[in-house]
Write a structure and sequence with these properties.
Helix 11 links the parallel strand 13 (302-307) and strand 14. This protein has 15 helices and 28 strands. It is an alpha/beta fold. The radius of gyration is 25 Å and the shape is globular. The strands form five sheets. Strands 2, 4, 18, 20, 21, 23, 24, 25, 26 and 28 form a ten-stranded antiparallel beta sheet that branches. The protein has an eight-stranded parallel barrel with strand order 5-6-11-12-13-14-16-17, surrounded by six helices. It has a single domain (64-129, 150-590), classed as TIM Barrel (Alpha-Beta Barrel), CATH 3.20.20.80. InterPro entries: GH, Glyco_hydro_79. One of its GO terms (biological process) is extracellular matrix organization. Pfam families: Glyco_hydro_79n. Belongs to the glycosyl hydrolase 79 family. This is HPSE2 protein.
Length: 593
């Protein structure tokens, strides 16, 4: 037993003369993602005790080392990106994107893409006028609200000292009026969503200006999805309205990337007429030709086809699309929602089967893409914990973070280049920021990820000291560990540092001993836990015991770590998410960008 313990703690390879027991113990080996758990019976909330093997002191469950020589994956600097749904035109929030508080929150997640797309993409029409409210004739509630907001923007705009952005300070009374309007529109939007029938939306030139101003001020690159359901009699794409939008954007020299449509495999349910993969591929080829005719966008990026969950018919759709337009798009995109938001409950977010549903989808998409365009980048767009707008106190709570953080780790470890979170600000409950412009738990989780995680993904070596499963009991993957090089943008850590992030779905604490190259290094802990009496339902979080909140509209709080002494065992509390920066590892994989 002392021999076993020595090999595990040193991180040395096992010689050929190792006893069979040691080989069996070290069988987990190399993994991009490490997952462990104690055996537990369905419905049993108590974690079973770990048997202490002779010679192993304490309750160390896992010995962990990281391969520091080279990364196994390198993802985009914009890996964690954001989405805004066109519904913000309907409910009025687009007019408030110039809020200093919203810009501050978005800047915290830069660099990133900002995708403007969603269910209403294919009902969006561009109208090249500045402010249609003034030409309506009779005043109404929208008339007063829109003109009041425009007056505030004109009179109270201040240039941001750093980037010269247009930032507005909206009076409280105006925000209260907007929240009342949005609450009324929320019922309308939900009715449309559940009936799958959507009304047309108009995007004015002024609204496009505000959208681009928000993206540009926040350090986000705008991706705009054009309406693909404007069809000619022969079912080809009618590009006339898109051309008007492209010309206007080019006249303003807006740096935008483009898409065409949203979930095109579902068009039959929307309009009673389908567009097959081959036809959409031709439409994308047409859009690429259109972009090349406009100097500003002759080299613009084009992404698609943004299909839904890759079931059999959707995979066939993607195959036909790739045959025609695989070389036209710069990345292949699809979207995924874990749960039907109408039936979600807090225990759903703790199910390991649910966390793992994404793996099979990734393999299906990768198989098609590698068949037609090997090496083409793949993005997951429009990802959310729940569909149908989400559920209050669930998809916007601390509990939803388990799905979100595992999604980030899983996608990065399998080489998905970008993940676009739906949504930054929305009418439902899948968003990162609520309608009081307060950051929700998934925002703080995303902020920590952006501050600490770099694009280089590292392989980890693990050895688990868990007993064999009993008959009738199943081992579930309730402890998940991922490793990256620490972000180069974080100047608190020298290059060569490594960041671990860990999800503990057990109802008991777990212990991890760092070994090999990580042994006896100083570690900084960032432990994220729910704050307040609501537990997993909480919409507030604490970092290392301190509640997180904005300092003011222009300032995010300092994310202070808790230093751990060198060689200390990491103790992971139950039902938590945490980040650990292992300092001064001098990892070869992490020294250079």
């Amino acid at each position: 037993s002392e021999l076993i313990r020595g090999f595990l703690l040193s991180g040395m390879p096992c010689p050929s003369s190792c006893p069979p027991g040691l080989l069996a113990l070290m069988a987990p080996g190399l993994a991009l993602m490490a997952t462990f758990s104690l055996p537990s019976q369905a419905g049993d909330r108590r974690a079973l005790p770990v048997e202490k093997p002779p010679g192993v002191k304490g309750r160390t469950l896992i010995l962990l080392d990281v391969n520091t020589k080279s990364p196994v994956r390198i993802i985009s600097e914009n890996f964690l990106s954001l989405q805004l749904d066109p519904s913000i035109i309907h409910d009025g929030w687009l007019d408030f994107l110039s809020s200093r508080r919203l810009v501050t929150l978005a800047r915290g997640l830069a660099p990133a893409f900002l995708r403007f797309a969603g269910k209403r993409t294919d009902f969006l029409q561009f109208h090249n006028v500045k402010n249609p409210a003034k030409s309506r004739g009779g005043p109404g509630p929208d008339y007063y609200l829109k003109n009041y907001e425009d007056d505030i923007v004109r009179s109270d705009i201040a240039l941001d000292k750093q980037k010269g952005c247009k930032i507005a300070q909206h009076p409280d009374i105006m925000l209260e009026l907007q929240r009342e309007k949005a609450a009324q529109m929320h019922l309308v939007l939900l009715k449309e969503q559940f009936s799958n029938t959507y009304s047309n939306l108009t995007l004015t030139a002024r609204s496009l200006d505000k959208l681009y101003n928000f993206a540009d001020c926040s350090g986000l690159h705008l991706i705009f999805a054009l309406n693909a359901l404007r069809r000619n009699p022969n079912n080809s794409w009618n590009s006339s309205n898109a051309l008007s939008l492209l010309k206007y954007s080019a006249s303003k020299k807006y740096n935008i990337s483009w898409e065409l449509g949203n979930e095109p495999n579902n068009y039959r349910t929307l309009i009673g007429r389908s567009v097959n993969g081959s036809q959409l591929g031709k439409d994308y080829t047409q859009l690429r030709s259109l972009l090349q005719l406009i100097r500003t966008y002759s080299r613009a990026h084009l992404y698609g086809p943004n299909i839904g969950r890759p079931r059999k018919n959707v995979i066939a759709f993607l195959e036909r699309f790739m045959k025609v337009a695989g070389g036209t798009v710069d990345a292949v995109t699809w979207q995924h929602y874990y749960i039907d938001g109408r039936v979600a409950k807090v225990t759903d977010f703790l199910k390991t089967r649910l966390l793992d549903t994404l793996s099979d989808q990734i393999r299906k998409i990768q198989k098609v893409v590698n068949t037609y365009t090997p090496g083409k980048k793949i993005w997951l767009e429009g990802v959310g914990t729940t569909s149908a707008g989400g559920m209050n106190n669930l998809s916007d709570s601390y509990a939803a973070g388990f799905l979100w953080l595992n999604t980030l780790g899983l996608l990065a470890s399998q080489g998905i280049d970008v993940v676009v979170r739906h949504s930054f600000l929305d009418h439902g409950h899948n968003h990162l920021v609520d309608q009081n412009f307060n950051p929700l738990p998934d925002y703080w989780l995303s902020l920590l990820y952006k501050r600490l995680i770099g694009p280089k993904v590292l392989a980890i070596h693990v050895a688990g000291l868990q007993r064999k499963p009993r008959p009738g009991r199943v081992i579930r993957d309730k402890l998940r560990i991922y490793a990256h090089c620490t972000s180069y943008h974080n100047h608190n850590y020298v290059r060569g540092s490594i960041t671990l992030y860990i999800i503990n779905l057990h109802r008991s604490r777990k212990k991890i001993k760092l070994a090999g190259t990580l042994r006896d290094k100083i570690v900084h802990q960032y432990l994220l836990q729910p704050y307040g009496k609501d537990g997993l339902h909480s919409k507030s979080v604490q970092l290392n015991g301190q509640p997180l909140a904005m300092v003011d509209d222009g300032t995010l709080p300092e994310l202070k770590p808790r230093p751990l002494r060198a060689g200390r065992t990491l103790v992971i509390p139950p039902l938590t998410m945490s980040f650990y920066v292992v300092k001064n590892v001098n990892a070869l994989a992490c020294r250079y960008r």
